[in-house]
Hints:
The protein is α/β, with parallel strands linked by helices. It has one domain: Rossmann fold, CATH 3.40.50. Helix content is 39%, strand content 18%. The chain has eight helices and nine strands. A five-stranded parallel beta sheet has the order 2-7-1-8-9, sandwiched between helices. The protein has a four-stranded mixed beta sheet with strand order 4-3-6-5. Helix 1 (21-32) packs across helix 8. The protein starts with 9 loop residues before the first strand and ends in a 19-residue tail after the last helix. 29% of the residues are buried.
Amino acid sequence: MNPPLLSGLLCVVSGPSGSGKTTLCRAACAAEGAHYSISATTRPIRPGEENGRDYHFLTEEDFLQRVEAGAFLEHASVFGRHYGTLKEEVLPRLARGQDVLMDLDVQGAAMLRAHPDALVRNAHFDVFLVPPSMQELQARLAGRHTDSPETQTRRLAAAMEEIAHWPAYQYTLWSSSREADLAQFRGLLAAERLRSRRLRELPGYNCHPLL
């Protein structure tokens, strides 16, 4: 029997562009029945993308109005575009016990790590996904065929800066294969569900926590 938790888990996954963090989160959500939190962004929609599936695509005016209204858990500017996590994507699900997974850059992850909301603090943990090597990361970025060579160079430089933030995360997952990454990641989710501070009670035991 799994003891009831105070809330669902809120897992933040970071890693440089091309590390596979989005693929990992979506695969884990499918395997675990978790919710993948879709970010809002002001960047243009790309061919093959769908509003509400890949991102919530907003105008800059709409995005900034929502910032002013306090609608975001976190938000940041990346390469001149705004990105953020809407509270409505996360908080209701955590409150009813559903796990929420999201991939964020290091700016957004730092904001979530220091978030003042008690529900967020209790549910939160984070993971940094490290690519197998810089050579592999460079090959992945080049293989996307969605960025110009100049953008690829800029993303690779940004990746070096992002990777330097790995010590700030509770877990560091060194990527190998999709299957191995998913197995390790699901192990982290299972371990986090067993943290004593997350438990509401011990079913079948007529006792109350002393702390």
